TrEMBL record:
TM annotation in the entry: 12-31, 51-69, 81-98, 104-122, 134-155, 167-187, 215-237, 249-270, 277-295, 301-323, 343-361, 367-387
Keyword Transmembrane carried by entry: yes
PROSITE patterns: MFS
Pfam families: MFS_1
GO MF entry, a single one: transmembrane transporter activity
Keywords: Membrane, Transmembrane, Transmembrane helix
Keyword Signal: no
Protein name: Putative MFS transporter
Domain Major facilitator superfamily (MFS) profile positions: 208-395
Top-level taxon of origin: Bacteria
Length: 395
């Protein structure tokens, strides 16, 4: 892809297909672990804390690796940087199930890092190559991301049962979509001149901007809830009496519900005076869904996981939308994206870890549920600041 993509319909279509295939691979490495977590833990004798670390590592490295994205883009060009990330992701997904405990954790680290880099690069491609359709494509890109997450959450346990009841090939299966995406991405780049990104010009630091920090905290706190759900909700539901397949299916249904609000929440919010009301609505749905899933009646869980999905899909898409609309130009938006995702995902990594520690200390999910409610309330507070109709770096 290049800046001329939009002038060539066939290239534009191939570019969109490539973007969607890459987006599909930005969550399976994370959501495929949760349904298999109990089996993995039993197989490798992992404690609750170690299982919490396993669910935390990819989220932590989403944040730690995000600042590498601009450097890779300047060195390789955005397109080749995405290709390199896909190849490393596929290798990490191949290695982590078959190299013992150390390989499981190291492979998970690399997978999380690759996803973090790609997550910063793709929005920049959308803004650069499709500027007049950036909002719509951001929603579609988010929907594809949710679809990939749902597929991995819903099919990993059935795959394990199908593949000789061994969790290793079921976990390794998710390298296949990464390889397909890499081939499709390489095919559209083959023989094409792609520019490297120019060196950035020093600008006023976002780290001294109050609004930028409110956006980063909102990104981090709502993401903390999301990755806690990816990693632990299947186990929570199993402890409530669901079998492993139904628990994974419930998470898959929840993530599929995210697709609805991932597209509609930013669209509806664009007709409002600012984004605070929409953020409050989606976070209320998120908290209600979480509370119902943990404390509500077991027979009502399917209602609560749908409410949870509607809330989280809208919450995440609103976070991505804020990265674009709170900046006056594309360069500031890119810097805000890097800052918010780096800090936000690093903070979000603490959610799954703390939940695992709390569960290990108490033996149930009651106290852990209170912790999640507090995280959600923090996201509401940050969102009320980030949702105001202001711009970062405005004095």
């Amino acid at each position: 892809m290049s800046s001329s993509t939009v002038n060539h319909p066939r290239s534009a279509i191939l570019g969109l297909i490539g973007l969607m295939l890459v987006a599909l691979n930005l969550r399976p490495a994370l959501t495929s672990v949760g349904p298999l977590l109990r089996t993995i833990g039993d197989s490798l004798a992992l404690s609750s804390t170690e299982q919490g670390v396993l669910t935390t590592l990819p989220v932590l490295f989403l944040g730690l690796a995000a600042p590498l994205a601009p450097r890779l883009a300047r060195t390789l060009g955005i397109e080749r940087a995405v290709l390199a990330v896909l190849l490393v992701l596929a290798l990490a997904l191949l290695v982590r199930p078959y190299t013992g405990v150390a390989g499981l954790f190291i492979g998970t680290v690399f997978a999380g890092g690759c996803i973090g880099i790609a997550g910063v690069l793709l929005p920049g491609l959308v803004k650069r190559d499709y500027p007049s359709h950036a909002s719509l494509l951001t929603g579609v890109y988010t929907a594809a991301l949710c679809l990939g997450a749902a597929l991995a959450a819903g099919t990993s346990e059935p795959l394990r049962q199908l593949l000789t009841s061994d969790w290793r090939p079921a976990l390794a299966f998710w390298l296949i979509p990464a390889v397909i995406a890499a081939i499709a991405w390489w095919a559209q780049l083959n023989g094409k001149q792609v520019p490297k990104e120019p060196a950035s010009v020093p600008a006023k630091s976002l780290y001294r901007d109050k609004l930028a920090w409110q956006i980063a905290f909102y990104m981090g706190l709502q993401s903390s809830l999301a990755y806690t759900v990816f990693g632990w909700l299947p186990t929570i539901l199993q402890d409530r009496g669901f079998d492993a397949v139904d628990a994974g299916l419930a998470v898959s249904v929840s993530i599929m519900a995210q697709v609805i609000t991932a597209i509609t929440a930013p669209w509806v919010a664009s007709y409002m005076r600012d984004q605070r009301a929409m953020i409050l609505l989606v976070m209320t749905l998120t908290l209600a869904g979480l509370g119902g899933s943990i404390y509500g009646r077991s027979e009502d869980v399917w209602i609560w996981v749908v409410a949870l999905g509607l809330g989280q899909g809208g919450g995440f898409s609103m976070a991505l939308t804020l990265l674009a609309i709170r900046a006056r130009d594309a360069d500031t938006a890119a810097r805000l994206s890097s800052m918010a995702q780096s800090f936000g995902y690093s903070m979000a990594a603490l959610g799954p870890l703390f939940l695992g520690v709390l569960h290990g200390m108490t033996g149930d999910w009651q106290v852990a549920g209170i912790f999640l409610m507090l995280v959600g309330l923090g996201a509401v507070v940050a969102g009320m600041g980030a949702g105001r109709n202001l711009y970062v770096l405005d004095d």
